[in-house]
Amino acid sequence: MTLLNQIQTVRSRSRQSGSSRITDEQISDLVSKLQDLLPEARLRGNDRVPSSRVLQETCSYIRSLHREVDDLSERLSELLATSDMSTAQAAVIRSLLM
Amino acid sequence: MASTSSSTSVDERERKRKRADSTPSAGAGAEAQPSKWRTRREHEIYSSKLFEALRLVRGGSTAASPSTAPARGRAVREAADRALAVAARGRTRWSRAILASRRRRLQAAHRARLRAPACPPSRHPSAAASASAAGKAPALARKAKVLGRLVPGCQKLPFPALLSEASDYIKALEMQVRAMTALAEVLASVSSSSSPASGSSSSSSSSPA
Asked: Which pLDDT belongs to residue B147?
């Protein structure tokens, strides 16, 4: 089942039963999936990590990804300003086809 | 040629990594939705959309010229985020929030507040009751709030939905970084190998690494 399906199942189940509880097991399952996404340097594949630590690492990872995207945007804007568009386009298409 | 071989090797490495990434997830029968960010096809789709958007940005900037570097960089960042949100095909909240916020801003700018901003926030009034599992520690709640602010459009989401959005968002961001890096490599090799014969007085940067 996809992650979204799991959540929807939990929601509909809880609506039926009248309670709005989401089990801790569900939460820790989601947290461990999130943990698997983190790069190896940040405690990936480590079993006994508290959820708060995972959340914290997730936040700093997202922040660092944002920074990377910002830096790349700067670099791309400079490159675009000075490049000849037709050669650039040909090169991009070529690189995508390879 | 050195330039093409360097970009080829970058693509080779990426392709190998993508194949290595996609085969285990396909074998485990894991969710198709998040692992799509790792496929080469998605990367190609995003790269070409991104390049088209960047062409428009460049065309616009030579005319109305926000010629300051940070403004251009911001325009590129917004185009990249928009292309990423479109690539998500409306299935995730963060992607809808990115597109909605841009539409809101454009309306405010173009109509100069003649009309009240009409876009309703794209948040469902769902499951506020199930906001947290019983007894979630305050430290966890605080960090969840920070996370909710980092992922666009996810500030008031219940915890499980927030985690799911965050994991998809991270995978999408990683693809965005890979695609923009590859694009920068291609453009750098183009501008450094563009000979004097091209006539453009490009203040060419130093040779690509």
From this structure: 92
pLDDT at A13 over 60: no
Dig out the tokens for B107 from the structure.
Answer: 């309306």
Confidence of residue B141 (pLDDT cuts 50, 70, 90): confident
Its pTM stands at 0.67
* One-character DSSP codes across B89-128: TT-SHHHHHHHHHHHHHHHHHHHTTSS---PPPS-----S
Which segment of A19-23, B96-100, B204-208 scores lowest on mean pLDDT? Answer: B204-208
Cα angle B76-B112-B85, degrees, rounded to a multiple of 5: 35
Name the one residue in this structure whose structure tokens are 């790792």. Answer: B38
Helix axes A85-97, B40-64, angle to 10 degrees: 170
- Cα–Cα distance between B8 and B12 in angstroms, integer? 6
- Asked whether the beta carbons of residue A37 and residue B134 sit closer than 8 angstroms, the reply is no
CB contact under 8 A, B190 and A21: no
Over its C-alpha atoms, chain A yields an Rg (Å, rounded) of: 21
| Cα distance between residue B102 and residue A27, in whole Å | 32
Nearest to B190 among A30, A69, A83 (CB): A83
Q: What's the CA gap between B199 and B124, in Å, rounded?
A: 55
Question: Are the C-beta atoms of residues A59 and B146 closer than 8 Å to each other?
Answer: yes
- Complex ipTM: 0.75
Of B133, B189, B181, B137, the C-alpha closest to B161 is: B133
Alpha-carbon distance B115 to nearest alpha carbon in chain A (angstroms): 33
